[in-house]
Write a structure and sequence with these properties.
single chain; hypothetical protein PF0899 fold; binds zinc ion; elongated; alpha+beta; three-stranded antiparallel sheet; three-stranded mixed sheet
C-alpha cells in the first residue's frame, strides 16, 4: 500500500466535497483502517500532514480509527481478534470460524464548518 497515494486520494475526496459546498471548510476527516488493509497508519498520518501543511486545507486533521483483524466462531458466535494468524476460536477451540472484519479502508465521516 502506498500511503502517499492514499493520503492524496483522501484529500481529493475532501476537496471535491468542499467544492460542492460554497465557502465551507473541512476540519476533520475520520478514516477507518483495518489491520489487513496493509496500511501503515503512522506513515499515512505523516503523508497526510505533509500534504495538508501549507495547502488551503490547513489545518485539516486526520483521525484514524484502527480495526483489528477479527473472526466470528460458527459454533459459539464469539467474535475474536486474530493474533499471529491463529484462526481457532479462543472460547470453544472450534476451527469453524469466518472472517468478521479487519480489511476496512474507508472515510467514515467528514467534519465541516459552514461559513
Ligand atoms: Zn467458538
Amino acid at each position: 500500500m502506498h500511503e502517499l497515494g492514499l493520503a492524496t486520494n483522501i484529500l481529493e475526496t475532501v476537496q471535491a466535497e468542499m467544492a460542492r459546498r460554497d465557502g465551507a471548510h473541512a476540519v476533520k476527516v475520520e478514516l477507518r483502517v483495518g489491520e489487513l488493509s496493509a496500511v501503515d497508519k503512522d506513515s499515512l498520518q505523516f503523508c497526510f500532514d505533509s500534504l495538508v501543511k501549507g495547502s488551503d486545507l490547513e489545518p485539516l486533521e486526520l483521525c484514524i480509527e484502527w480495526r483489528p483483524h477479527t473472526r466470528r466462531c460458527q459454533a459459539c458466535e464469539k467474535v475474536f481478534e486474530v493474533v499471529d494468524y491463529n484462526l481457532v476460536c479462543p472460547q470453544c477451540a472450534s476451527t469453524d470460524t469466518q472472517f468478521a472484519g479487519g480489511d476496512e479502508l474507508e472515510i467514515v465521516s467528514l467534519e465541516i464548518e459552514e461559513p
